[in-house]
Records
---
Amino acid sequence: MSGVPIGWYIALSAMLFTTGLVGVLVRRSVIVMFMCIELMLNSVNLALITFSRLHGNLDGQVLSFFVIVVAAAEVTVGLALIVNMFRLLGSTDADDADRLRS
Amino acid sequence: MDVLLAQTPQAEVVGSTVEFWVFSVTAVLALGTGLSVVVLRNAVHAALMLVINFFAIAVLYALLEAQFLAVVQIIVYAGAIMVLFLFVLMLLGVGSETRFSDRVPGQRTAAVLLGIALVVVLVGAGAGQFLGADAVCPADGSTGPVCAGLAGPNDDGNVAGIGRLLFTTYMWPFEATSALLVIAALGAIVLGKRQADEDVTDLPVVDGPADAEAGPELRGELVTASGDATEEQS
């Protein structure tokens, strides 16, 4: 049994990214959509770290580190926005946020 | 210097086999929990599946010779971010969703079909050229035909290598992230503060039939009661 080719990691990353994307498109709860965005960010990090190993330098890992920092900041602000949305609408359902439509 | 066990030819085969099996189990785990996040109706169950997914991805980071990021992944994602998610879920008391979104007709089918198409494109464009046996990273730290491996940059430790890059080449982006974190914390405080605006009241959660049958007077009382409560708190 040989090792794992680099392409398998990238394929796994692509599948995880698509799972998150389909989740954002399909789910109604804003919080679950937000979790799916985290899933997509993680899959991109996995691809970056894979390419870092492929090219033999650590720049990809540093970029991945920055992505983690930005994700942490994004979660902080995003969850505050979701709490505010719940205060205004009484639900966290994305389909209820149609005040501009009606 | 004596030859370490990890540098013997036999250890290379063992290391490759271990990588293969750990990758297989972890990849199945990551994909399964990722799909569960999308499919499970209960948001708390989805959040717990996401925690397992984060741990699986941390294991993959460790396999890819990114030990520092594996630890950071567990501390930041599985620790801090998921606690924040679960805290908000419990705070808002979100129950199960009744159904998936169907605001646009055929939305679910279109999303799944486009997702499959995206996987085909991404795997074909990104992974297709690295699927052969020559794209395997050698377990003994030597440079393979395609994969360079991280034995050189990780020579005096992964943390030391990342730190050296972070404080030389990427000095200014690193400083900018510190400003970003402060701004994000300030933004969360401003957004989380209860406004004195009359239009924004804490609506009572109307989810049961008992609340719906209650007259508007009762619901009005609830609104004012919760409004008074907030004033007392602040």
---
Amino acid sequence: MTTAAVDTRSLKFWQGINQALTEEMERDERVVLVGEDVARPGGPFGVTRGLRDRFGDLRVRDTPIAEAVLVGLGVGSAAVGLRPIVEIMFFDFAMIAMDQIVNQAAKFRYFSGSSLPLVIRTMCGAGGPNGAQHSQNFEAWYSAVPGLKVIMPSNAADAKGLLKAAIRDDDPVLFIETLGLLAARCDVPTGEDFVLPIGVADVKREGADVTIIAIGRQVDRSLQAAERLQAEDGISAEVIDPRTLQPLDADAIVASVRRTGRLVVAQEATSPYSFAAEVCAIAAERCLSELKSPPVRVTSPFINVPTPVPLAEARAPGADEIVAGVRKAVNG
Amino acid sequence: MPDVEVEPPRGVNRDPSPIEPVAHGRHRLMRLSRRFEETVQEQFEEGAVPGPLHLSIGQEAVAVGGCWDLRTTDAVLSTHRGHHHCLAKGAAPDRLMAELLGRSTGYSHGRGGSMHVAIPAIGLLGTNGIVGGGIPIAAGAAYGMQAQARDDVTVCFFGEGAAAAGVFAEALNLAALWQLPLIFICENNQYVELTPQELHVAGELYRRGEPFGIRGERVDGNDVTAVAAAVSTAVQRARAGGGPALIEAVTYRWFGHYAGDRAAYRAEDEVLQWRAQDPLLRSRAAIGDAAADAIEAEVEQVIADALEFARSSPVTGVDALSLDHYAR
């Protein structure tokens, strides 16, 4: 990724989110933010701090703990002219609002022909001592629903640029933030016009021998793995972050796999019926004959998330697992 | 006496709308709903409706009274049994008929059918295939109006069955907490799908808002004047920032849960007793036979035109299946 000639500032992931929210609320008074603890406390993780003071109680509003009605606030207010952002504190809690997301928001345009400019922000993944009901990754479930868009950025710049795009988009967007990345820094373009396109993958590292498709925390870990593989094995790994899971930039994935001939997919979610499964299916359908070895999925094992951080981290794929996955793909 | 006020009737898809007394307009709209559903039921029996139907015959006064004082910019959330809500909020009978008959001129290109009609341009935010599914959306629409400092209101229709869903309690709490311009209208038609309401409802429905400080009222849901009066009071209060209200309109579902359900689970006597309280007999009596006959003749023409429009429209083909999923 090159950002030559663009003014940047080093920001943490959460600051990228906060800047996007601030800029878009400043830009468009129809943009509002509702959720549990988003206003007075400034967010359960501090992501939305300062917004209530700046934009007032009607536009930044704490809600009761009632996720179905919380998402309904977004659906209904979007239908009458607002551009709401709904925050669901943990992805796990989106289960309570499944009807509103899947049966209602995702089908509004299908039934009515009208836009529903709704953003649902939520927080996924292990990354704290939160356990099996506060750490899950359901990105694939929602990516299987026609009518929804799903975005999952892996750094502060992508988070900012894609959240701004989501807020300006006229369809319901599920925007998945990653708890374990909140404090991660990177250089973020400062301009208000910094908006990234939805549905475009980003090549985080170019390489010739193997394609690693990674999302969330596994993007940085894949980059670390790629450095080690270069140093220790002389393997040149390309790392691609699709950033948007629905619509998915399949062309970028296929083009890379065609060049390298090998595919590794890294994610924190468990493997069955997952994002990694989808990427492997796309590769099988579109470039099987160009694969030199079977694709490898590097995922969490098919077990629940433990609460103690060392155990949760042991479950999630790290650079070691990704290195092992690449070696398997390259060496058989 | 409100019935001497002069207002254009709603829902009759004709331009220009005739100006007539309120009671005439209400009878026109109720008759339109009744004849619309009788007609679509006939179409169903002829195999011309490619989807399920849930008829609201007998419940017309709830929809017409509930929507009478609403503007186009007010919102309505409807249910799986919602043709009367759609028409009362101003849906065009011809396009609604086309939707139910699976025609490309329908509101969802004929792909959605009865339970999936949403017409945001007139404030109809959807019938709904999910019992209780509209309740959270109603809270959102009311919040949207409040946040935009509009004096519009949202009316949320739901049945006594949906009152058991958790979202009802969530929405009551939020509506009271935020003083949302939201009128909950519980359309108690005595039957929750295939079983009587006694198996579903604990306590008094109209009092469900009391713990939250929401005014509750029970009205005769077969009396359009009573429904309209109660809703009008609630709407005016909500427009002025007075917050939510809950109205239970007691009525009766004349037919089965769905078209084809013979409703053998209830006694014929019970049905006959309720039919004797036909809301249309009352609205007809209120205006006299001569006026009613004239209105009903006009409604027949509207229905005939709607049916003709639907039948002469192209049957929805597979080319329409992928429309309207994303903006781009």
